[in-house]
Design goal:
Distance between the termini: 29 Å
CATH topology: Rossmann fold
Number of domains: 1
Number of helices: 7
Number of strands: 11
Pfam family, one: Epimerase
Organism: Candidatus Thermofonsia Clade 3 bacterium
CATH superfamily: NAD(P)-binding Rossmann-like Domain
CATH architecture: 3-Layer(aba) Sandwich
Strand content: 15-25%
Largest sheet: 7 strands, parallel
Family: Belongs to the NAD(P)-dependent epimerase/dehydratase family.
CATH class: Alpha Beta
Protein name: UDP-glucose 4-epimerase
Structural class: alpha/beta
Radius of gyration: 18 Å
Keywords: NAD, Oxidoreductase
Oligomer: single chain
């Protein structure tokens, strides 16, 4: 199986490339860093250019598209939005025209809870799931929300299999020993969501390889099963989101984000918990 991984030099992308190869996939890494290795394992490309997208995705069985400006305030607002939208659209279009059947791409929890929000965030219920109304509040969050709408179009009208992974706070190996963390005294505090970077890589691979129907678009949160703060979950809800309905028996430090769809659609169950030295 040939998988193209864009954003291959980024934090998540580098781990995805390594994991996919460990599973026996032939992987072409793509990023705008440096130049290609001449071996067919890495190529440098600007994916805001449609022709470059056609070149790098040709012949792939799946694309894992992680190329993007990864947050707000790194570049001017318009540049962040336009860059991310151009890459997302170009990858979908190239895949559709060249017969690449599947695209997995990085959406974000920020379509639900922008960090930091510009106005108070309200939730109707917990655990939060993919059917909850979204509330993007930044150039970055808007680019991810728009990307999901573009994905709807390409799945419906071109028959692509698309999986939009709403990554939560991705924790690197270097940061991992610092978890769990104390909760900050900020009323804008976001959901204490997180996922270990190795779980991210496994989620990407499963989404790229699990049986899914043609013409489907699956939006799925990728999150650990617990929070990463020292405040029990029910106390956190009472303090920050007192009007939210509880739709599950949340106890201890249980996650406030549901992982049910990722598990049911492509078999992803997180293995890492910040409250255990071993795999969860």
């Amino acid at each position: 199986m040939k998988i193209v991984v864009t954003g291959a030099k980024g934090n998540i992308g580098a781990v995805v490339v390594e994991y996919a190869r460990s599973q026996g996939a032939q992987v072409l890494g793509v990023d705008n860093v440096g130049r290609g290795d001449g071996l067919g394992t890495y190529i440098a490309a600007d994916l805001t250019d449609l022709g470059s997208c056609y070149d790098v995705v040709h012949g792939a069985d799946a694309v894992i598209n992680l190329a993007a400006i990864p947050d707000s305030k790194l570049f001017p607002n318009a540049q962040t939005f336009m860059t991310n939208i151009a890459i997302t659209y170009n990858v979908f279009l190239a895949a559709a025209h060249l017969g690449v059947p599947r695209v997995v791409w990085a959406s974000s929890i920020q379509v639900n809870h922008t960090v930091p929000p510009h106005r108070p965030v309200r939730y109707r219920y917990f655990p939060l799931d993919e059917d909850h109304p979204v509330d993007p509040q930044s150039d970055y969050a808007l680019s991810k929300h728009a990307g999901e709408m573009i994905a709807d179009h390409f799945a419906r009208d071109f028959g692509l299999i698309i999986v939009s992974l709403r990554f939560t706070d991705v924790v690197t190996v270097q940061r991992w020993p610092r978890l769990p963390e104390p909760i900050p005294p900020d009323e804008r505090y976001p959901l204490p969501h997180y996922v270990h970077i190795h779980d991210c890589a496994r989620a990407c691979y499963l989404a790229a390889t699990a049986p899914l129907p043609a013409g489907s678009h699956t939006v799925a949160f990728i999150a650990a099963r617990d929070t990463h703060v020292d405040l029990p979950s029910r106390e956190l809800i009472a303090r920050y989101y007192p009007d939210a309905e509880l739709r599950a028996d949340i106890q201890g430090y249980d996650a406030l984000i549901s992982g049910k769809r990722a598990e049911e659609a492509f078999g992803f169950i997180p293995k890492f918990s910040c409250r255990s030295d071993a795999l969860a």
